[in-house]
Amino acid sequence: MSARKQLVVNADDFGFTPDVNEGIIEAHRRGILTATTLMANGAAFDDAVQKARAVPSLDVGCHLVLIGGKSLVTGARLPLTVSELLGAMARRQIRVYEELRAQVQAIMHSGVKPTHLDTHKHTHLAPPVLDAVARLSKEYGIPWVRRPFDFPLNALGGTVPQMKRLTSRALGLLRRRFHRVLEQHQCRMTDHFAGFQITGRFGKDALVELLRILPEGSTELMCHPGRCGEALRNARTRLKESREAELEALTAREVKDAIRGNGIELVNYRQLGVI
Fold first, then answer.
1. Are 5 and 263 in contact, with CB atoms under 8 Å apart?
2. Which residues contact 20 (CB under 8 A, 6 or more apart)?
3. Cβ within 8 Å of residue 169, ≥6 positions away
4. Do residues 68 and 42 make contact, with C-beta atoms less than 8 angstroms apart?
5. pLDDT tens, residue by residue, 241-260
6. pTM above 0.85, yes or no
């Protein structure tokens, strides 16, 4: 583990809607965002690819989707919830590896060279999905895979709801197999991860506090910035106005001061690979 503090600020849902894309680009240009992950089956995929070409400093990865939208393999509707996905996998009604491979290929064929992989709703916590993601990481030379286990956020106090804390602890029970599978496929992970417990509910004050307690080593901070326009308001997601709040936090002067004041080095995955 590195003795310094390195932080990748990574936005999910690039390609979801045009206004989400707009917010992600703004968070990178004016704020601390360094990376994002692209949804191959997103309604605004082409818009996201076009925007990414205009901002080559933004590191782009794959946001692999098994919940929501249409399959790139069959054209059918994908499951709408985690429980529906688990049932479909148990009945072998969804070809996980083939679906995720098609999404990786669509992103690469667009001209994007992805450096990292994560999944919508953290579905790679499920063993069949994790196995597929690890296999794709090795086959396509995309080295970095999200470690979706928050480091302890007790210092944030009431900012983190009790249910989120309990869910985060439950997810931690999956760590041993998760790490073993990724190590077997020579996948790389950051030393730490943050963002699950505060998804949809953080502003600049909470972000400043999180930066104060950031551990040494490399950390991925997951976020969901965006502009809440008509497209997002009509989309199927609980994260709407909260994306505006996250965008404000990611571009706030106080947050930039906290980055400098806590000796944090902002990096993307390409830089982590060579530092």
1. yes
2. 13, 14, 44, 225, 226, 227, 231, 232, 243
3. none
4. no
5. 989 999 999 999 999 999 99
6. yes
